[in-house]
Amino acid sequence: MEHFDMELDAFKQKLLAMAGHAETAVNRAIEALTTRNYDLAIQVKQDDEIIDRFEVEVDDLAIHLLAKAPLATDLRFVTVAMKISQNLERVGDEATKIAKRARDLSKEPPLKINLDLPRMANLALSQLKAALDSFVHRDSAAARALVPRDKEVDALNKQINRELTQHMMENRDSIPRCLNLMVISRSLERIADHATNVAEEVVYLCEAQDIRHMGKVPATPAQA
Amino acid sequence: MMTTMTTGEKPAISAAQPGNQSASAVPALTVKNLSVFFGKNEVLKKVSLDVTARAVTAIIGPSGCGKSTFLRSINRMHELVPEARMTGEIRLFGDDIYARNVEPVIVRRRVGMVFQKSNPFPTMSIVDNVTVGLRLNGMRNRAVLAERTEQSLRMAALWDEVKDRLHAPAISLSGGQQQRLCIARALAVQPEVLLMDEPASALDPLATAKIEDLILELKKTYTIVIVTHNMQQAARVSDHTAFFYLGELIEFGPTAKIFTSPSQKRTEDYVTGRFG
Question: Measured between alpha carbons, how far is B12 from A68 in angstroms, rounded to an integer?
Answer without folding.
Answer: 32
